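One example given next:
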Amino acid sequence: MRAIHWAVVAVVLGIAAQSRAGFIISHTMETGTGSLTGYHIFRFYALNTRGSGSRDLTGVDVSIQSSGGPPLMQFRDYNHNGYVDANLGGVGLNDFNPVASFVKIGEDGDQFAVYGVPIRLEGSSTNDPVTYYTGRTEFRVASLNSVGHRPDATTDQGARFAVVIAPLDSDVHLIGEICDSEGVSGIGGAAIPASSLSGDFLPGESGVNLGAAPSASDPVPAFGTVGWTQMDYLAQVPEPTGLLPLGLLAIGLLRRARRQA
């Protein structure tokens, strides 16, 4: 039986108006088995509490830090251009197939574009994501969903936006921003040629540009300026619970031996 730990919860406030509610971030933690032995599987969720008709989860820009060693990553040529990519956008990965860490809202068909910051996720003759991301304990990914593919995030824990597979003794720290459709209200307006986009379109995607890709110095991607919510969330591995009873047992045995001496 798989052990799943539930954790609640950090409440974060909207950037545009600090007094209004934003999203509640939470996570589950599962101990890996089989090929994931030695790892915990963290799943991160965002519950939309903004109200006023806001229901979905649309975009995320997050730096993920693993305290006890590098999280598990997948490297493969997912766009079939002959170069190996860092699959941190989760192409072909989902909750039921958590073989590597990824940042993605919903499933493959929901995602419009994904960026790696500061190094692109897609390999090419001039970009080597394998060398950059291998062995790293921190990585940053920004992802945006297509119109009509933005999941309802107002029930239960909300919508899942990241899966991190980290060594057993690792806490996972998320720092970044998250938004609903209001945060990307410019999408669907005047199209900008996709060739000017410096981020990573997913295979087969084209059309409306998202604007400039996020940079290492820019904390918010240029998807929009309204409706973004700051996120600073720490998922901690629980302390072992079996040590305290053993310690008390040892103290009791020691006192008993002293009385018999």
